[in-house]
Design brief:
Length: 583
């Protein structure tokens, strides 16, 4: 059969493939895009719990209003039994007392930018795929790729099961765990043995919502068992996804079928048993490997690997869809710039691969810490000890923080400080909760901060915005890179004028009023603390304490509380800010 050529050929029509297609077609409608999807949508898929960062990408894709109109439950955070004991604790994206029941569908603004959704993937993925199609991407469902043609490190074409040959200028592997291009190219994968888990799940009708806030918001429930953990994710007014994660080796030792283990877990976890008491199970228990992994390479001469094909981090962090959307957005931007030809092609490809691999690896490291720090796993003590031993860290807050932040902080948006998809405040809050020991920020114990940017190399890093990868000035020393842009540059300029913490934050507040007057003061100063903390952590700033100098007082910026603390806060301090600053 005759071959057909496209500018971009995407294998896989899930969130990663649809995101690449939609962003490319938004900013360069003239490019021809083909999506090859083996299944017929809609179809069920696990991975229903999202993080807030996805909203920005959906907004950029132009599909926000369609997703909002689907009326998925709003996710304000998660509720856990995890750590040193079985106490409940909440991890909220916004303080629960600040949540409002805004009319839906609503715009991407205000609290909507800080919350997430719990989505029925059959509906969600179909909306994304149809949106890409409406923007001009050609979509072929029930279409299998039977052969990948390769010359050296270059993909030269795809043969479909029908016998047709497809060629492209750029190829994107968004085929999920199958990894069609990845396997054909012989790319090796890192799989930490201790994060080889088994997932077993089913869907339930009319289960109770464990926690509701107003009319449409809830938290994901994560409940530890001696031999694993359960997720409880409301997907709509009546439908709930409930699944079990068990280490693969322990699963084998139990000598039970997936169905038997699943029903055992549901009955033994008190909260889940109560919530499903009057519910009806679909009765089609499914299971799959749930192995954390990371591909050694994510880009080549004319190909990219994205989404779960690039890597997978344990679902305890609910980061799967965030990683898929993020990496796909980066692929789209990279291809758009390759087509323009204004940046060095190798720099663009290396930037994508390095950034995405770092992001996934840090999520895997965070998952390793979560598992090793959970004493609720009474049947998995040796397993957790093995994870801690393999990771090579001590479970004190300081040691955990230094280990987790290895590899640096993401600089996509220099106004925010992240590693993986987790900001500094959230990460330190998790460490504190899991370890049972207090964590601190640099301003808690220091009041003098001295800038040290000597011995550095000027470099450029990429910042994706409005369809362009902007080259942002930065400095590099060893393995660490510091942007000279956005909030980081503001901190640098202030530190060139003062070393004392109080005038430093007074100047930063003045900068906010001058440059970003609509930026919430509490949020801005919290982000400044996190940026400063990252700079201290990487050696760009030396922190010390001078008893003759004033100190900064603040109420803390952790978003993690015990369940009882959340209830008390909601009852006693409605609409109270979560940070108080004394400047």
């Amino acid at each position: 059969m005759d071959s057909k050529h496209y500018d971009i050929v995407i294998i896989g029509g899930g969130p990663a493939g649809s995101t690449v297609a939609s962003i490319v077609k938004k900013y360069n409608p003239g490019l021809s895009v083909l999506i090859l999807e083996k299944e017929k949508f809609p179809r069920d898929h696990i991975g229903e719990s999202q993080l807030p960062g996805i909203g920005f990408i959906l907004h950029e894709m132009g599909v926000w209003d369609k997703i909002e109109a689907a009326n998925f439950p709003i996710k304000i955070g998660a509720s856990y039994t995890w750590g040193k004991n079985n106490d409940l604790w909440d991890f909220d994206f916004v303080p629960i007392e600040q949540f409002r029941d805004d009319e839906r569908p609503g715009k991407y603004a205000g609290l909507r930018t800080q919350t997430a959704w719990q989505v029925d993937r059959a509906i969600y993925d179909d909306i994304l795929l149809r949106h890409a199609e409406e923007l001009g991407a050609e979509v072929r469902e029930e279409t299998l790729v039977s052969k990948v043609m390769i010359e050296n490190d270059r993909v030269t074409g795809l043969t479909l099961q029908s016998g047709e040959t497809i060629t492209g200028t750029h190829y994107v592997d968004g085929s999920g765990v199958v990894g069609i291009l990845k396997r054909a190219l012989g790319i090796q994968v890192w799989e930490p043995h201790e994060l080889r888990n088994i997932a077993v799940w089913d869907y339930w009708e009319d289960a109770e919502w464990a926690v509701t806030v107003g009319k449409g918001a809830t938290r994901v429930q994560v409940r530890s068992l001696p031999y694993g953990w359960i997720w409880f994710i409301p997907l709509g007014p009546t439908r709930t996804s409930i699944g079990l994660i068990v280490p693969a080796d322990h699963y084998k030792s139990m000598g039970m079928s997936p169905e038997e283990i699943y029903l055992k877990a549901i009955s033994e976890q008190e909260t889940i048993a109560r919530l499903t008491k009057n519910a009806k199970r679909r009765g089609e228990t499914e299971s799959c490997k749930d192995w954390s992994n990371l591909a050694d390479r994510l880009s080549g001469e004319n190909w990219f690997i994205t989404g779960e094909a690039a890597g997978f981090a344990d679902p305890i962090l609910a980061a799967g869809m965030q990683l898929a959307h993020n990496s796909a957005r980066e692929v789209a931007y990279t291809i758009l710039e390759l087509e323009r030809g204004e940046h060095d092609a190798k720099w663009l490809r290396d930037r994508y691969s390095e950034k995405t691999r770092t992001n996934i690896r840090q999520h895997i490291q965070f998952a390793q810490y979560w598992y090793s720090a959970n004493s609720c796993f009474s049947d998995l003590k040796e397993h957790c000890q093995a994870i801690a031993s393999e990771a090579g860290f001590k479970l004190s807050p300081g040691e955990a923080w230094r280990w987790l932040s290895q590899g640096g902080f993401a600089h996509d948006n220099p106004g925010f400080t992240y590693f993986g998809s987790v900001d500094v405040a959230a990460a330190k809050g998790v460490i504190e909760r899991l370890s049972g020991d207090r964590t601190s920020f640099c301003i808690d114990t220091n009041n003098v901060f001295e800038l040290d940017i000597s011995g550095n190399e000027p470099v450029r890093i990429g910042h994706c915005a409005q369809g362009r990868i902007l080259q942002v000035p930065a400095i590099r020393r060893g393995t660490h890179t510091l942007p000279r842009h956005g909030l980081y540059e503001a901190v640098i300029q202030v530190l060139l004028r003062t070393k004392e913490v109080v005038p430093m934050f007074q100047m930063l507040d003045a900068y906010r009023l001058q440059k970003h007057p609509k930026f919430d003061r509490n949020a801005f100063l919290s982000n400044a603390v996190q940026a400063l903390d990252a700079m201290v952590n990487e050696g760009w700033v030396k922190a010390s304490f001078d008893p003759t100098k004033p100190v900064m007082k603040h109420a803390g910026i952790h978003a993690i509380r015990t369940a009882e603390e959340s209830k008390k806060r909601l009852a006693e301090t409605p609409n109270a800010p979560n940070v108080k600053w004394n400047l």
